[in-house]
Amino acid sequence: MNAFSSILGLIVAIVCAIVCRNIATSKGRGPTLWAILGFLFSLIALIIILILPRKSAI
Q1: Which domain holds residue 35?
Q2: DSSP category for residue 27
Q3: What contacts 35, CB < 8 A, 6 or more positions away?
């Protein structure tokens, strides 16, 4: 059961990293930073990047 939980947690972290990277790219934000944040903080980072507005080009 412990190995299953670890693998499941790793899969969730990787999926969140990919999703955060894609959303960050579409909003004009740093995809590498958000991929790392998505991997480390999973759902928290995903919620934050969803709330953040698009970065305006000034």
Answers
A1: 2-51
A2: T
A3: 17, 18, 20, 21, 24
What pTM, to 2 d.p., does this model score? Answer: 0.88
Distance CA 43, CA 13 (A): 9
Half-sphere exposure of residue 32, counting CA atoms within 13 Å on the CB side? Answer: 0
Query: Is 57 inside any structural domain?
Result: no
The count of structural domains within the chain is 1
Instruction: Give 8-58 pLDDT, tens digit per residue.
Output: 999 999 999 999 999 999 999 999 999 999 999 999 999 999 999 998 766
In a domain, 58, yes or no: no
- Integer-rounded Cα Rg, in Å, for the chain is 13
Question: In this structure, is residue 10 part of a structural domain?
Answer: yes
Q: Residues 29, 32, 48, CA angle at the centre, nearest 5°?
A: 55
